[in-house]
Amino acid sequence: MAEEIVTENLVEKKEEWHHVATMEDLGGLKRKIKVVYDTIGVKMALEKSCDLVGKNVQIKGFRKGKAPKTLIQTYCQEKISEIAASMLAQEGFLHASYEQKIVALSEPKFESKDFKIDGTFECDILVEIRPEIKPFGYAGLNLKKPDLDIEQMFERLLEETKAQHVSEVCCEEVQNNRTAVVDFVAHVDGNEISSGKDHSFLIQSGQNPPFGENLFGMKIGETKLFALPGPEGTEYAGKNTMVGVTIKGVTEKTLPNNEELAERTQAPSYNDLINVLRQKAEINAMQKERQIIEEEIVDKLTEMHQFDVPQDWVEGEEKYFAGQLGVDVNTNEEIKKYVHSMAERNVRRSFILDAIYEAEPNLKVTKEEFDTVIAEEAEKQKISRLVLQADLKKKGMLDNVFALIKHQKIMNFIIGQANIIDDVPQIISENSF
Length: 433
Description:
single chain; 433 residues; alpha+beta; Alpha-Beta Plaits; Chitinase A, domain 3; Trigger factor, domain 2; 3 domains; five-stranded antiparallel beta sheet; four-stranded antiparallel beta sheet; 11 helices; 45% helix; elongated
């Protein structure tokens, strides 16, 4: 608490602090701050707290906020002490942060807040601080241009396009890789154990359940009885199972020919479709190149910059990765190690890129750049810029847009100064979010 000196014409603040703050290094980024207030600082805090409580408390016989201070101190002693302790702890933390030049990564944890019998106050605060990073080596990196097979990417796109526009034709008999609609019933020792009507099965050689070759050559309307081994892991395992199957329908998926594919994709011609797919393959290759080069940049920077990372952040990233993979990392030690390494790498990357951003004044994202990205995205979505911005704000995604622009500017800056065999496009990805 700083004392106030009242003069005839003004109120001056005298920077005389009535507390002492010390900091202990607990290892890594963890710090323990101890704040000790003298009796003057405690008295000032209690008086201010009493005033705050007095404005809202109602004591019998007095209007709300009008009770005498002595009564408020008597009836609300616990509340006054609680608020005063919180005020002293918060002020002590802020002063210690300023004095020690630290930046907390999260809200401080107050381990204890105690008024002592001699009228002083002590508080212990646990906090995790931001690591100090002086970025280096990001200018003039030696990077390798990825060797990507664009023709292979084009062929994959063509096959995927064909697969999206297959047609299903009716067939007369069951053959390999055809789909059969069947009624079936299974018996063991004369007792029915399973049955079904109008079930569709893709019939393949060696499949499990093993209808497979048993149905090859059967025509619609035909019924066949054959023996199969009982299902493993059931009470019928090893027993002879008699299965009766009636074929209700047979279909086969066929890929479209060139003309059919053009028609189904609404392309003017097959050649036009091929040109579009080649352009898409080239764009995909450029985006992949950019992605690989950015990953190489991160690998080099994280290898060069060694520092402690906040474990709370790493744990948060681990939960995110595990959710993305849909796995419980505790069931597989290898997956657990992989998720942890990726999470720590992500956190380390974030701090390094932020340090580069702060070190290079020209990288600061301007309002004009932000507005341009919003306007471009709004045009793509055929809505007004203001509507899009309001929607992003409502969803809490405006920071995501800023982070995207910031990331691209940092990477453009590093790539622009790097030694690469061939040029890499400055901005490949579309600003979509």
